[in-house]
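request received
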Amino acid sequence: MKPLIQRYSDSDRINHWIVAIAFVLAGLSGLAMFHPAFFSLTGLFGGGAWTRTLHPYIGIVMFTAFVSMAKRFWKHNVMVPVDYEWLKLLPDVLTNREDRLPKIGKYNAGQKLLFWMLVVALPTLFVTGLIFWRAWFAEYFPIPVIRLAALLHAVAAATLITGILVHIYAAIWIKWTVGAMIRGSVTHKWAKAHHPLWYREVTGQPATPPGQE
Amino acid sequence: MTNHWVDIKNADVILIMGGNAAEAHPCGFKWVTEAKAHRKARLMVVDPRFTRSAAMADLYAPIRVGSDIAFLGGVINYLISHDKLQMEYIKAHTNAPFIVGEGYSLKDGIFSGYDAEKRKYDPASWGYELDKDGFAKVDPTLENPRCVFQILKQHYARYTPELVSKICGTPVDTFKKVCELAASTATPTRNMTIMYALGWTHHSQGSEIIRTGAILQLLLGNIGVAGGGMNALRGHSNIQGLTDLGLLSTSLPGYLQLPKDSDVKYDDYMTRLTPKPLRPNSTNYWGNYPKFHVSLMKAWYGKAATKENNWAFDYLPRYDSGYDIIKTFDLMYDGKINGYICQGFNPLSSFPDTHKISAALQKLKFLVIIDPLATETSNFWQNHGEHNDVKTEDIKTEVFRLPSTCFAEEEGSLTNSSRWLQWHYKGAEPPGEAKGDPEIIGELFTRIRALYAKEGGVFPEPIRDLTWTYKIPTSPSPEELAQEYNGRALDDIVDPKKKDTILAKKGELLGTFAHLRDDGTTSAGCWVYTGAYTEKGNMMARRDNSDPYGLGQTLNWAFAWPVNRRVLYNRASSDAAGKPWDPKRKLVFWNGEKNVGSDVPDYRPDAAPEEGVGAFILTAEGVARLFAPTGMAEGPLPEHYEPFESPLKVNHLNPGHADAFNNPAARMFKKDRAKLGKPEQFPYAATSYGMTEHFHGWTKHLKGNAIIQPEQFVEVGDELAKEKGIANGDRVKVSSARGHIEAVAVVTKRLRALDCGDTKVHQIGLPNHWGFMGLAKKGFSVNTLSPSVGDANTQTPEYKAFTVNIEKA
Amino acid sequence: MSSLQSLDIKRRSATTLPSTQARETLEVAKLIDVSKCIGCKACQVACSEWNDIRGDIGTNVGVYDNPADLGPKTWTVMRYSEVEEKKGEEMAFEWLIRKDGCMHCAEPGCLKACPSPGAILQYSNGIVDFIEENCIGCGYCVAGCPFNVPRISKQDSKAYKCTLCSDRVAVGLEPACVKTCPTGAITFGSKEDMIDHAAERVVDLKERGYANAGLYNPAGVGGTHVMYVLKHADKPEIYHGLPKDPQISATVGLWKGVMKPLAMLAMGLTALTGFFHYVKVGPNDAEAHPDEPEDGNGPHVIRSSGPGQMEGKGNVNPGEQA
Amino acid sequence: MEMNRRQFFKTCSAGLGGSSLVMLGFSPLAAQAETRQFKLARTTETRNTCPYCSVGCGIIMHSLGDKAKNATSEIIHIEGDPDHPVNRGTLCPKGAGLLDFVKSPSRLKFPEVREAGSNEWKRISWDEALDRVAKHMKADRDANFTAKNAKGDTVNRWITTGMLAASASSNEAGYLTGKVMRSLGMLVFDNQARV
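response:
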């Protein structure tokens, strides 16, 4: 049985999946109200009115859970010079030629950009969502503000969903990554291949990326 | 109204003064907007406030409350000095040529014949100079200095524009614009209509204000013409009906009168009330008084009214004085009234000086309320804090509250301002055990009659003999009652001119009051209503709204009294020769054989112009009375006096005479006079009125209306508000010498300060729709502030002009 | 879809397919001639009586406007303004009173913003009607409307506004407020007739000194089926904030216009790109690489960035990794 | 609708169940969109006159049922009478709100009496109310009737009990009231025309 390295703690994972599930529910209910084509999704929530009622509460759950997640992961997502190198080699990334990539830490530039996109999108969604939350707060805001909030909410949501689609795909594309977030551990090979600096950091071994010797 | 609602569309100029038609009679006001839209009519509104009628006006003039006679006198002055008079009309249809006796005089605002202690006039000196046959002398050339026209000229010469502006506070140029617009109708082809209401009647000289308006209209030739007339916009749906039916202290149905103490004998009564014609050509229709009176007594007492007992003359109560509501509540206050029945009336909210009314009610032994709604008066004994602060346990009055039906649950007729009697039908059952008014009165009377039959009592005869032929004695039906007041032939009625023709067979319903007799062979409960329910059926229920002449004359809709005439004095719509003044708006004219036209002639149909029969068939003169020798308590010509509570210290018209400060002939009880406020403590003029959203105190019980005007407020001009530091929406306290109220302040530019000579007069508006009952927010009766003084002739209280103080609450 | 045949639907909210277009029915309109309006609120009472709605009994805050605003149970309300405006040559005091309520726009902002299919219908006669059964209470219509008319009920979270009495018009009657208006300030008929009637009124008003009298039928929303005759048509805003050139706000246009296809495209393409990338490039499987000496026997280092995770505590389920 | 705790749990279970149902194709049908049915389709119309001001507008009262005996004809709507030559179908804010008058919670339903000094109403029967009022009136009339005045002339008047007659009651009720009260010799007698 290959030895494993701990990548995410139990609470990290629980926190992540709360945000993820909330994202799915909020996303679906949001899309139901965003475009007529998706309106039948309201069936998942017990009809249009229930969708409109639940969406904001789910949104609040997602936002609060994300805040604790951001507290956990923001240190690892600070952009460093090597990240920009990584980005320049995007074609290599996309064609699995990881050997040509510079050595990166716990998260690569793509993941970091996604993180910072989330840090912008989710508060926007939260604030604008509150503004035109008709049941409780909308009456306190002038209509032009509500209109702007609705637009920004849509823009932020579209960005968020697109970003998360990439995030989900990447997790499937890089095998065992999903396992990392579900069970929290990765194999040495996985770590060395994808996050050599992080690997060296956790194991104290000099990481020689596979296929480079 | 002399004309009627739809006729207003025929007007070229509309003056709304002493009323607020757009708010109090919106659906009637439609015809003002129709006149504006289709005849290019001009609307002018003269009112202390810029009301919603003023919002529609082409010309608005502010005026100080209570100075209407000065304003109208000024317009008359303008007409005379600019020769804007319709002279043919004046000569043909008014008493301008009549010569007044030498005894008449006016000095410093006091007419001849004034008794200062009794505050009464003896009108003898105002009479015409009579010739040997007892007819009034006339001077057709109008030059005689003592002819009415010259006296009128002399009288109103004093009402110059500058003096009027000083008294009324209306800027001179605005006042002149009103005069010019009114003067534009002096020609035969332009007519002005005047629409007035309680804004004119609620004054200590209310009747005289209305007479001034009538004089103005007569000088312009606007009475009896299409789109003209003096149009009183009555307040309640059947206030006209109950007035016609004589439900007033000293009245009998059909404007007959009860006998006085001095009418000891039947002949004294008859001679007093049966006038002699003052001109040979005067119809003098009141000369038929005996026919109407005898027919009434036959309707009420049937067989018990015989020639021998002077048609049961002694069954009628004789009066020593009028018992109007101010006098009544003064007597009640002194403990002299034991019982009181309030049928659909709310004195605690609608009579002046609420604290006095409350104290008076507490002295009653029993009070009976008959009403569809739970009114303040029915709960006068309950303590409602500041809104009705009484000690319940000390009030020993037994109060009976009897539920009555509302309009939807009863059948019968209502008479509107246009004198139309309109029948309505029952559409629902009353709630709970509510009963209709006829049933309640029927039940009550049959029990009283039974008690007198069983136990005897004082003077039971009139109770025993009162006709009561109703199929259900305890609940007379509307049809039976309508037929009773319409009247029947008790014998075959023969045409006096053609002995062989029978006008009405015995037992038949009469078709017109021309068939009434004074020999007991006809009965009519209310002679002016004869023709309402005839052999041809219930005329009041007719629904043909066709308007063949396009003037709004819908003669086949319902029934108008008298005998379906829609425009009174309509003969005056034609000149002496019977030719219509305005060919496009003909009412009644001579077609060579008969008087015909778009209305039932208010005139003898076969009276040819050569006979010179006057167009005003009910006056002894036969023509309209610019100068009124009889009938008015305070003088033959209207004179301006200040209201009893005035912001001014002097009457600028007659500064010299103390008695001429306010109406010298108005009656005021000592205890009320003691409670008159002085300008020093109460500097601001105030007026109370109604809003369009509410109907007096009824609609505060209705959610729909409570929503659109939920809370009591007072209207304050923005200048006064700035002075007093009152912001819009603040709570303010308004007080008078009689009490105080609190309400929200509506600060508005619609109430302007007026310059009355050396005094700047601020005016405050007090809508009176709230009380301690109903769904709307609790409020005070505005009449906590108003004074107990009334018009010299009708005793209508002076709700529209008194003085108050105002400060932040 | 509405079951009333005489009211054909021209447009349904949140519906990508066009409604039935076959029939061309009469286009109706309500004309409010403010110069004839006496501000008596009969229309407010008739509207609440016909529709069986009663707002709350509020308070007086120093104005005549009661209730103070439109509401879920107040579908029309009178707005009062005291102004000084030109009449002929000089300035005159005027008391402008305007009946506020839904304008039944030809391009309804509410319908454009509404996310719920069939909650807002525009009939072929021009009436824009809220169908409360389909309303989800989101309040988008409030944002969409250029006149701030729709109101969401706190009681049942449904949107409400004047229906131009679609139930009466459906059976050939005029709306309740039109019938009751004592001075005939409110008239109803075909939009064409109402425009002609307005023209007559404008001629009369110009004669009375109101040079700028005119018809208020704003093109910005494609014209409205509730139109005003104003004495001062050049300054509608003095009528208690009647918008000068109302149209669906650009923000709403963006939000309900280009944003929708753009967002759908973005999400759709991303998903497809991911799929075809996978098809082309296939998975990136670190385990497929040959073993390295250090792989098998390195220390079991279970350490994570999370606090409180004890080192060396094996919590790995051996079966997991196989 | 706002969520409270009980609803939240109910929702979660329903949500799960609902979504699974959707998967099986049982999605609830889009509700039949429909404008409000015309409420006057089968009502009975009665013509009447507005009881408020003196324009005398014609009104049509729509009541439930077709006058069948067992159906109590409840008024559900009041509108202007288009045939009436003055108001031509229009009604002012008061007339348009007449339904609320018929239905007002302030409507009196039963005869009541407030005994001397008491602080509450007591419901009584019509018979008791009318008998007691009749007795009061007869007693007061017999005690205070003035047959002759100070000079000894016949006057036959009773001025210690008065009445205010309703100006919204019909001519027929008014005529009967006038006739009855005058037969009792009453002079303290007025109606709203006075104010």
